[in-house]
Amino acid sequence: MTSPRRALLVVDVQNEYFDGPMQIQYPPREATLANITRVLDHADAAGLPVAVVQHTLPAEAPVYAEGSHGWQLHPDVAARVKPHWKQVTKNYGSVFGNTDVAQWLREQNVDTITIVGYMTNNCDLATAAEAEVHGLVAEIISDATGAIHLANAAGKVSAEQVHTTLMTLFHSNFAAVASTKMWTDAVSSGTALPKDNLVASALEGRNSFS
After folding, report:
1. CA 54 → CA 13, 27, 87, 92, 151, distances in Å?
2. Assign residue 152 a region: left if phi > 0, alpha if psi is -120 to 50, beta otherwise?
């Protein structure tokens, strides 16, 4: 089996998720940030291609307003950005929407993307789901991502429920789910992360709830 040709996608690690209305609620945001920086440092040391993404809306928008404090990268990420890393802004959930990220990945001969950042329930989900369209394997680092509480006319769900449910969903089809430690070990050894599949997950789920 050939080693994965990985790139790290650092998705929307912006101040909005720490002191704005979109504060990450689960896992604890400071813990996820610490793991994001560990992943970044390990990726840089391993020579992996890195793309740092910022969600961007017009200056009058209530969140992600270009140039605002909330729009800016968290200082712990901003301080690590290297000149040779790719930096891109987006205005869709997926990092592939209206950007040249897919082309950049092809130019880097990447076949596997690793997703860290925010949010589990929006941009991470959209990116992982679209990866297969571009012929890419996706990985997501469960303790280097995070979700928010959600409530609307359709119902109410806690950030922990959102995050846990989506990690199970990712691993069943869209992305291999791993901890920071599992991922750094896999990068160091040049191995792929294991992922379940939808049929096996369905059968296991049926057995678990029968």
Report:
1. 7, 21, 8, 10, 25
2. beta
- The tens digit of pLDDT for each residue in 103-120 reads 999 999 999 999 999 999
Q: What is the pTM of this model?
A: 0.96
CA-to-CA distance for 142 and 160, rounded, in angstroms?
12
Of 93, 109, 8, nearest in space to 51 by CA: 8
Domain total in the chain: 1
Q: Output the DSSP codes for 53-66.
A: EEE-B-TTSSSSBT
Residue environment code for 113-131, b if the CB has 16+ CB neighbours within 10 A, otherwise e: bbbbbbbbbbbbbbbbbbb
Residue 1 domain-assigned?
Answer: no
Query: What domain range is 26 assigned to?
Result: 6-209
pLDDT digits (tens, 9 = 90+) for 35-64: 999 999 999 999 999 999 999 999 999 999
Kindly provide the b/e burial profile for residues 140-150, where b requires at least 16 CB atoms within 10 angstroms of the residue's own CB. Answer: bbbbbbbbbee
Q: Contact, 47 vs 187, CB < 8 A?
A: no
CATH code of the domain in which 123 resides: 3.40.50.850
- In 3D space, the residue among 45, 42, 10 whose CA is nearest the CA of residue 118 turns out to be 10
**Residue 90 placed within a domain:** yes
Burial class (CB in 10 A: 0-12, 13-18, 19+), 192: middle
CA 57, 61, 62, 68 torsion-angle sign: positive
